[in-house]
Specification:
Number of strands: 13
Oligomer: single chain
Strand order of the largest sheet: 1-9-8-5-4-2-3-12
CATH superfamily of the largest domain: Type I PLP-dependent aspartate aminotransferase-like (Major domain)
Number of domains: 2
Distance between the termini: 26 Å
Strand content: 5-15%
Structural class: alpha/beta
Largest sheet: 8 strands, mixed
Helix content: 25-40%
Shape: globular
Radius of gyration: 21 Å
Number of helices: 14
């Protein structure tokens, strides 16, 4: 436990004290038109939301990913919270999800009074183990939340079939999955509801931001009301009613036009950004494959029926001690490599608001092995090579 705490502190310091010297872990995406579009939004005197750029972003999401309705939100966290309201979550209801995810995935449902039922993940993709879901279902289960880790799709056919059998909703946490696919379907557009993130660490960013994707038309009207602070203002703006009023619960979930303007500069270059990240991901994979073949580390696994988006490139060490040493070695060489989630079920809030169903055979063990390497739009090939060489140097020293 002491080693895990030390590892966490090391990771936190790496983020808080990171100097943008040679190899930062992340640089927010920037295409060159962001400032121009923000200025236009200001000149249009429309910066609060639902303006020209918000409509462009929404149109892109709906048309590209094939969903009935998309709503820009202030974050993926808020998209998940809206999804929990739409799902009708009440105190005592149960929601199934992996423990290896960000706190927002669970918080959104805990805020509505739900009990979180964590199940183990797959060792290969680090996604929820679809074969363990059915046994965790009870009469109180209302929702299954697959989390597409690193932009690699969960086994959605199996998950959707289970949900249909037990009349459950599927809410995809596709925060990391924009532009990625599962069997030719875009992540976030496969379940009943999908949630995207446009945080500065994601492939496409508005600084902060997210999107709610509705694949079930019955949710559209209420979703609009919830996002308009519980009012039917959208119907008024469309001329469907002569005045608007408070009709339901809701909050201020709408993304500002400033954020949407920044985001649109990237969505209009979505394919270019996606191609760049995939190129960088494959460069890492090619460079480090020799170490994997020697059994010194493990590389990411991508199922043949999945198309990922290069969101994360990670390697797996042989355990916590080696992970800590490698991160420290890279940090001393000005490379900000970090680990990822501490499993939610082992946290104080996770123990209070949830349970782990079955045995934790994979989640904790795999979480202690992961090292995430620098990955961002515009990362140079020679920098990837230098980082890869440092990793090779470390393992040569360790052997």
């Amino acid at each position: 436990m002491q080693e895990r705490q030390s590892d966490f502190i090391l990771n936190l310091k790496a983020n808080l004290k990171m100097k943008r010297n040679i190899f930062p872990f992340n640089i927010p995406p920037y295409t060159g038109k962001e400032i121009k579009y923000i200025k236009k939004a200001v000149d249009n005197k429309k910066i609060s939301g639902n303006g020209e750029f918000a409509k462009k972003c929404i149109s892109f999401i709906e048309n590209r990913f094939g969903v009935d309705k998309a709503i820009l939100t202030t974050s993926c966290t808020h998209a998940l919270e809206i999804a929990a309201i739409l799902a009708g979550i009440k105190p005592g209801d149960e929601v199934i999800m992996p423990s290896y995810t960000f706190t927002s995935t669970a918080n959104a449902f805990v805020l509505r009074g739900a009990k979180i039922v964590f199940v183990d993940i797959r060792k290969d993709t680090l996604n929820i183990n679809e074969n363990l879901i059915e046994a965790a279902i009870t009469k109180r289960t209302k929702v299954i939340v697959p989390v597409h880790y690193a932009g690699v799709g969960c086994e959605m056919d199996t998950i959707n079939a289970i949900a249909k059998k037990y009349k459950l909703l599927v809410i995809e946490d596709a925060a990391q999955g924009v532009m990625a696919k599962y069997k030719d379907k875009y992540l976030g557009a496969i379940g009943d509801i999908g949630c995207y993130s446009f945080h500065e660490t994601k492939n496409y960013s508005g600084g902060e931001g997210g999107a709610l994707l509705l694949n079930n038309k019955k949710f559209i009207n209420r979703a609009e009301i919830i996002c308009e602070k519980g009012t039917n203002r959208n119907k008024f703006l469309r001329g469907e009613i002569d005045k608007y009023t408070w009709v339901d619960i809701g909050s201020s979930y709408m993304l500002s036009e400033i954020n949407a303007a920044y985001l649109w500069a990237q969505l209009e270059k979505a394919d270019k950004i996606n191609a760049d990240r995939l190129k960088n991901w494959h460069r890492y994979y090619k460079n480090l494959k020799c170490l994997a073949e020697q059994g010194l580390l493990e590389l990411p696994f991508i199922p043949k029926h999945c198309v990922h988006n290069g969101h994360i490139f990670y390697i797996k060490t042989n355990g916590l001690k080696q992970r800590s040493k490698l991160i420290e070695f890279l940090r001393k060489n000005n490379v900000m490599a970090i680990f990822h989630y501490v499993p939610l079920h082992s946290s104080p809030a996770g123990k209070k608001f949830g349970i782990f169903y079955g045995k934790d055979e994979v989640t904790t063990a795999e979480s202690e092995r992961i090292v995430r390497l620098p990955m961002f739009f515009g990362l140079k090939t020679n920098d990837i090579d230098k980082i890869s060489d440092l990793i090779k140097k470390y393992f040569k020293k360790e052997v």
